[in-house]
Design goal:
With about 525 residues, this protein is an alpha/beta fold. It contains 17 helices and 24 strands. This is Thioredoxin-disulfide reductase. One of its GO terms (biological process) is cellular response to oxidative stress. GO terms for molecular function: flavin adenine dinucleotide binding; glutathione-disulfide reductase (NADPH) activity. Belongs to the class-I pyridine nucleotide-disulfide oxidoreductase family.
Length: about 525
């Protein structure tokens, strides 16, 4: 079963006593180890660097909890990067060992289809080989998207794939450089002045990052950069986190702005030029209205692309309306798919699949990011691969259910959700036929630390009729992924509002706010939680 990006299908097939063969993806631009996007340039390095950013915030809080931390505190990118990269490499090795233990044949070659049963492999030395198989699974994933209409974009910009593998610091803020030389007694006196200077073009232009795009990848990258003390700006064409609940998206970006990340709304980059100083001059158009456009420019030390491709009128995972897809290009080029009859979507280039992951060629399957209409999330690809392997082995008929797939955006204030957004619920059921329960709450951890909790919010979207089945559940706050993972099981089991309210919460936790929620938007009452 030639494939690359997702490992589990092959291990499962091996466990089911079927012969399995594995080839890497087609055209590659950067070298990865085994494990695909998630392990090498996605979930794993992202979450570890997000944790580094959270620790920085925790150190800011520590003094108010009685800890004495000698100042000034600075972050060393090289130490973080080396630790993250070492861990990723350990996972690469672990995956290869497990493939061997399960007797999966691994060929380090570039694969393409010759016919529906034959794969051609070409290694780095130009040596060619052919493999035949009853069934073929394609799981080649995707790569970041560069804009084709912006001069200098590819030459001078990088993507999240590159960010996670930078060995040297991607830049330092002027706060770090100035404060490190100030004696401790002077820090409080000059802190406001220094921060003010950092926001000025004089300092910021030589030490700042520009993230283009407000997909969850873009916001996560900007958030972790800002969290470790770097200056970050985000350029947004229209709205952030399109396809997600937009009220929640505004809370996420509002928190980021409050923490110092700059947002350029309604802006589209037009060119990037490298100056003699090594800085990047970025020009863009700010669209203020249909009749007013303003041309702007600024300089940055680095530009990171996290853009999507515009697509109108398609449902996201069968639930959410998506206009901007995540900024990754499917790795289908060079696989020779159309020539053997595998249909590609004309707009996205992804492989068209049926509910059983089957392509237009009956013995060729596609799973994960490369498949059209599938969520670009590792857990769904892993689950789909396992189920496919069992079906191919004749041990199950179960299909993958792509509805109510939970996910979390690991921004500084995390956002987790499962089910329908409020907008999608309104579109599907009608505004008068849904009930939205909500609450603004303050995590206990934020109290002594005197942190701003104005963006911590929970929302439960229900069908207004009958038992008030929960259609969607949304949460911004600490450890959002851990919170939503548990509730996702309940939502998939048909959770109702009454069952949610009948559940005893664990006190004091943020998750318990979902069991106490009782104020509806329709009522117009203040939804701020009071008391403990």
């Amino acid at each position: 079963q030639p494939s690359w990006d997702k490992k589990w299908p092959f291990w499962t097939m091996s466990n089911l006593q079927r012969e399995v063969q594995c080839l890497p993806r087609g055209l590659c631009r950067t070298a990865w180890g085994l494990g695909g996007t998630c392990v090498n340039v996605g979930c794993i390095p992202k979450k570890l660097m997000h944790q580094a950013a959270l620790l920085g915030v925790a150190m800011d809080d520590a003094g108010k909890f009685g800890w004495s931390i000698p100042g000034p505190v600075s972050h060393d990118w090289s130490t973080l990067a080396q630790a993250v990269q070492n861990y990723v490499k350990s996972l690469n090795w672990g995956h290869r060992v497990q493939l061997q233990n399960r007797k999966v044949k691994y060929f380090n070659t570039r694969g393409s289809l010759l016919d529906r049963h034959t794969v051609r492999g070409l290694d780095a030395k130009g040596t060619e080989m052919t493999l035949t198989a009853r069934n073929i699974v394609i799981a080649t994933g995707g790569r970041p998207r560069y804009p084709t209409h912006v001069p200098g974009a590819r030459e001078f910009g990088i993507t999240s794939d590159d960010l996670f593998w930078l060995k040297e610091s991607p830049g330092k803020t002027c706060v770090s450089r100035l404060l490190i030389w100030l004696p401790g007694s002077v820090l409080l006196v000059f802190r406001h002045v220094v921060v003010h200077l950092c926001s000025s073009d004089l300092f910021r232009s030589s030490q700042s990052w520009l993230v283009v795009g407000a997909s969850y990848v873009g916001l996560e990258c900007a958030g972790l950069l800002a969290g470790i003390g770097l200056d970050a700006s985000v350029m947004v064409r229209s709205v952030a986190l399109r396809g997600f609940d937009q009220q929640m998206a505004r809370l996420v970006t509002g928190h980021m702005e409050a923490c110092g990340t700059r947002f350029h709304w309604g802006c589209v980059p037009t060119s990037i030029e490298k100056l003699p100083s090594g800085l990047l001059q970025v020009k863009w158009t700010e669209v203020r209205s249909d009749l007013e456009r303003v041309e702007r420019e600024d300089t940055f030390s680095s530009v990171l692309w996290a853009i999507g491709e515009r697509e109108v009128g398609r449902e996201r995972w069968g639930e959410e309306v998506a206009v901007d897809k995540m900024g990754r290009v499917p790795e289908t080029t060079g696989l020779n798919l159309p020539q053997v009859g595998v249909q590609l979507h004309p707009d996205t280039g992804k492989i068209v699949v049926a509910t059983d992951e089957r392509t237009t060629v009956s013995n060729v399957y596609a799973i994960g990011d490369v498949a059209e209409g599938r969520p670009e999330l590792t857990p769904t690809a892993v689950k789909a691969g396992k189920l496919l392997a069992r079906r191919l082995a004749g041990q199950s008929n179960q299909l993958m259910d792509y509805h109510s797939v939970p996910t979390t955006v690991f921004t500084p204030l995390e956002y987790g959700c499962v089910g329908l957004s409020e907008e999608s619920a309104e579109s599907r059921y009608g505004k008068d036929n849904i009930e939205v329960y909500h609450a603004f709450y303050k995590p206990l951890e934020f109290t002594i630390a005197e942190r701003d909790a104005s963006h911590c919010y929970v929302k439960v979207v229900c069908d207004r009729a009958g038992v008030q089945r929960v259609l969607g559940l949304h949460f911004t706050g600490p450890s959002a992924g851990e919170v939503i993972q548990g509730f996702a099981v309940s939502v998939r089991c048909g959770l109702t509002y009454a069952q949610l309210r009948d559940t005893v919460g664990i006190h004091p936790t943020c998750a318990e706010e979902l069991t106490k929620i009782h104020i509806t938007k329709r009522s117009g009452l203040d939804a701020t939680v009071t008391g403990c």
